[in-house]
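## retry 2 of 3
previous attempt timed out at serialization; input unchanged, resubmitting
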Amino acid sequence: MNDLDEIGRGVAIVGDEVIVVGEREIKGGDTKIYRRAVVLRYSLAGELLDEWSSPGELLAEDGAMGIAPLHGGGFVIVGWGRNKGTIRQVLTRWFSALGEAGPVRVEPTPGSDAIGYAIGEDREGKIIIAGSRKQPATDMDAWIFAIPGPLGAHVWDVVRDGPGHGPDDARG
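## retry succeeded, writing output
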């Protein structure tokens, strides 16, 4: 009887909260089903404090796969975004310590489906993302890269095509 699904994909302890990220299905104004990122904030005792769903302001659909607390407070999520029926692109969004949505970053990968599965922050404040990217004539290859924040070029990135040359997603 559940018409619209909701899936949890990642969890982190941020300060004194448990934050779960994932995606939920919504009905758009055109009655089509869209997937949108969801952030659920709980107390350590399991009480729901707040929930947020992506408004889809940059791309029609998106989902959150991973979350990491930030040293300076707040947290960052990673996943994917796309317009309905197009390729996915890695989408990263920052949140304040109060859980307010902030800047969004999309990694443009024209012609290459890409997803961010896991995220972390290093000691220097760089955001490290592990995911996958489909390049022309290949299966999904692991794509691991570092960004300085919401703006700026990649600090470094690596695309791994394992020895078997099959799917090589970096999932965690």
